Amino acid sequence: MSGATRPDGYDEPATMRDLALAAGVPASAIVLDRAGADTFASCANAAGPLDLGSVIVVTQQFHVARATWLCQRAGLDAQGAFPTIDRPAGTITGNVRELGADWKAVLNVVMGR
Questions:
Q1: How far apart are CA 50 and CA 31, in angstroms?
Q2: Beta-bridge mates of residue 79
Q3: Nearest to 33 by CA among 48, 20, 22
Q4: What is the tens place of the pLDDT at every residue in 13-23?
């Protein structure tokens, strides 16, 4: 579970962990990465400091292709999955945002961030 954390208590990985545990995922199958400031960092952390060989990228539909691609570029065996869409307006915004994020991802890989 990778994502941002802030001093005000905002903790994406802990929230994801709690949801996964409630859904029946065993705690032993969960690894937390609180240094995942963006998708590139999450993938780099999984391949580097966390020393994972494979990951399942679970995210929004509009984000799964880029996130999986970045993890594969980091050397991970990565598969992607996404839940059904329950907020179409957020999905439209996400798809628009993804255009710039895709270019950023390519630049991060090409420039060797």
A1: 8
A2: 56
A3: 48
A4: 999 999 999 99
- In 37-83, where does DSSP find H-type helix? 39-47, 61-73
Question: Nearest-5° angle of CA 41, CA 44, CA 49?
Answer: 110
Quote the DSSP letter at residue 2: B
Location of structure tokens 């391949």: 47
Evaluated on CA atoms 35, 82, 105, 48, the torsion sign reads positive
Interatomic CA distance for residues 67 and 18, integer angstroms: 22
d(C-alpha 10, C-alpha 21), whole Å: 19
pLDDT, tens digit, for every residue of 94-110? 767 777 787 788 888 88
Q: Are 25 and 34 in contact (CB under 8 A)?
A: no
Give the up-direction half-sphere exposure of residue 92: CA atoms within 13 A in the CB hemisphere.
3
HEC string of 85-104 equals: CCCHHHHHHHHHHHHHHHHH
